[in-house]
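Tutorial, part two.
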Amino acid sequence: MLSDFRLAIRSLRATPGFTVVALVVLTLGIGATTAIFSVVDAVVLRSLPFDEDDRLVLVEETNPTAKGLPGGYVNAANFIDWRAAQQVFVDMAAYQGKTLTLRQEGEPENLRGQAVSASLFPLLRVGPRMGRTFTEEHQVAGRDQVAVLSDGLWKRRFGADPAIVGKTVTFDQGTFEIVGVMAPGFTFPVGPLRATDLWVPWVPSKDEFPRGNGDSRNYNAQVVARLKDGTTIARARAQMEQITAGLKAQYPRWFRDRWVGVTPLHESVVGRSRAWMLLLLGAVAFVLLIACVNVANLMLARATAKTREVSVRAALGATRWQLARGLLAESLVLSIAGTALGVGLALWGVEIMRASLPPSLPRLAEVGIDLRVLATAAGAAVVTGLLFGVLPAWQASRPQLSQALREGGRSGAAGLARERARTTLLVAEVALAVVLLVGAGLFVSSFVKLTSVDLGIAVDNTLSIGVYPRITFNAPDSDAQMARAGQLIQDVHERLRQVPGVEVVAFTTGSLPLNSGWSRSRFKIPGKQEFPDDDDAPDTKTISPEYFKALGVPLLAGRIFTAADSAEGAAPVVILNDVAAARYFGGADPLGVEVETNGKRTVVGVVKGVRLGGPEAKMRPEVYLPFNSKRAFGSTFVIRTPLDPARITPDVRSAIHAVIPELVIPEAQTFRSMYDRLIVQRRFNMIVIALFGALAVVIAAVGIYGVMAYIVEQRTQEIGVRMALGAQPGTVLRMVLVRASVFMGFGLAIGLAAGWVLSRLVQTFLFQVEAHDVRVYSAAAVVLILAGLAAAFVPARRASNVDPMRVLR
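Running the prediction step on this input gives:
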C-alpha cells in the first residue's frame, strides 16, 4: 500500500492540470461542508455541558389558545405548587434574568445576572471552583444579598483575586457578599452569545404570587428539572398535566389560556434553530456530492488515458485488486489533500459565518473547528475518496488486453462502458446542480420579498438609546422618585435637542418597533364590545409629541399630541393607528369618540400602522398616550439625524451624562441594526444557499467541459473524416453542442423533477414565495443551460478547428 501511495503521488505530480482541477473542486466541496458542519455540530448536534444532560427538561407554562401571550415562562406560585406535588423529578429549579449594575472595581457596568433557586446547582450537578453556592435559607427577602461569580467576571473585573470569597460588592440593587466562583466554562442558561456574569438567589416579589381572576399576568421565571432514573418524558408530562388540572380547578381564570409543557432541555435550547441548520447541512451535502461526482468523472477520463499502462501491468501478471488499488490510492491521496486544504478554507469560512449568523443563535460562541470536527473531516476524506474512486477503479481493473495493446486500436466494449458511466455521472451532476440552483432561486426570491415589505417607519438615520433613572420600587417615596425620573427625562430631552446633528428627538415608555417587547391594555368603546388584554387588545405606548416625526409615521386624520396634552389637568386623549381604527370602529370615524384604555380618553388622531415585530409580523392595533411625567419609569429616546448615527452617538451619550452623571447608559442602537437583526437569519440562509447554487453551477460546468473535451478527443479521427468528406466547421460545432445539450436536457429533467418534490421541504423557510414558483424553475434551467453551453463551447470550437489532413495521415 505504501508503494501504491508513492506511485499515486508521483502520477498526480506528473499531471498537474488534472490534479489542480480535482483539488480545487474537492477543496471547495470539503471546505464548505466542514464549515457548515462545525456550525451545525456546535449549535444542534453537540450535547449540553452537564452530566446526563438527556435527563434535563424544561417545564413551562404553555399557551394552547395562541392568544399572543408569551409561552415558556412560569408564575412563581405555579412553580412552588408543581415542585411540592411532583414525584417524577429529582428536583426542579427556577431561574430568571436580572440585570445588576456594578458600582465598584472600575467603571460602572451593567452585568448579565440570573436569579436562580438554590436547587439549580445540585440539579445540574455542578459546583464552584472556590467557595460555595447559596442555599434555601438565602431565598428569603433580606437574606438574599449573596452572589456567585462566573469565572470570566472574576478574572475580568476582580483580577482573579483568590480572596474574593467573603468580600462584599456594591451594586445599584444593594451590597452583595461573594460566596463562590464557578468553574471555568460553566454558564447557565446555555445558549446566549453573552454568558451569564453572576448568579443571585431567586426571591420573587409578592405581586407574583396572587393568581386570583388571572388579570394580573406575572410569569417571569423559567423552570428546569431533572428526570428520575427510569422516568420517561411522557410519564413526567402526564403527571405535570394531572397536577396542573388540579390547579386549574382552583384557579380557572388563570388557566383559561395557560397549560403545562415538558420539553427536553436540549430541544428547548436548539429547537428553533434545528430545522434551518439541518437544511444548510443537507444543502452542503449536495455540494460535496456534486464535487465527488465531478472528480469521479475526471478519474474515469484519467483511467481511460491510462488504459495502455494498466493493460501492460495486467499482461505482466497484476491482479484485478492490484490494478484497482492503484487508482483507489490516487483518489485517497486527492481526498486527503483536498480535506487538508478544505479544513484551511473552513477555518476562514467559520470566522466569516460567526460574524454573519444571527446573534440570537444558541451556543454561537461555541462554533469553531475543534477535534470533533477535525475527526469528522478525516472520516469524510476516506469516505469521499472511496465515493469518487470506486467506479473508476472498478472500470479500469478489467482491461481488454488484446484490444488495448494494439497500437491505434479503437475503443471497444470497455471504452463504451466508460463513456456511458461518464455521461451518467454528468447527467447526475447536472441534476444535483439544478436542485441546488432551484433552492437558491427560491431563497433569493424570498429575501427580495422580505426586504420589500413596508415597515411603516424609516429605519435609516434613526438612533435609539435607553435612559432609565434609578428608582426603588415599593419604597415609601417611590412616587417622588418617579416624578423626579420624569423631570430628568424631560431635561435629557431638552439637552439632546441641542446636540449638533440631531434633527428630531422624541421618547417613549413603551417598547420600540422592531423590538421583541410588548405592552397591551384593555380597550373598550362605551356601550360596545370590550377587548381584553389578549391578541385583540392594542399595544400601548406613552410618547412625546415628536415621536411620529422622528420615526416617519404619517398622520392620517386628526392631530398629533402637543405639550399641552401632558400638562397637569389636561383632558385625557389618545391616538389610534389605522389598524385599531378599522378593528374597533369598522368604517366609522373614531375622531372625537370617548374610549376606555388606561382610563377614559378622547380619540384625537389616527396614524399609519407600524409592523412592530418587523417585516414578517402582522399589523397590530396600537394606541398612543401622551407622556405622563408623574408616572415615569424611564424612557427610550428616538433620535433622527441627517448624518451617520455613529457620528453623533458620543455626543448623545455625553449629553445624557451631563444631566444624569450616575447613569449607566446602555449601548445605542440604530433602527437599521435592529432591522438587520430581524432578517439576519433569512439573509444568511439566502447567501449560503445562493453560494452553494453558484458553486454547483461552476462544478457542473467544469464537469460538462471535461466530458465534452474527452469526447472530442476520442472522436478526433471521426471528426477529421467528416470534415474531409465536406462537413463544415459550423456543422461540427453544432454537433458537439447538441450532444452536450442532450446530456444537460436529461439532467435538467431529472433535476427539475427532484427539485419540485424536494422544494416542499423548504416551504416553511420561505416568505411569500411558493415552493413551486414556475419562474424560479425556469430561471434555474436557463442559468444552467447557459453555463453548460458556455462550458461545452470551448471543446466544440476545438472540434470545429480540426485539420482533416493532419488527422488522416
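Residues 462-676 form one domain. In part three we will examine how such features are distributed along the chain.
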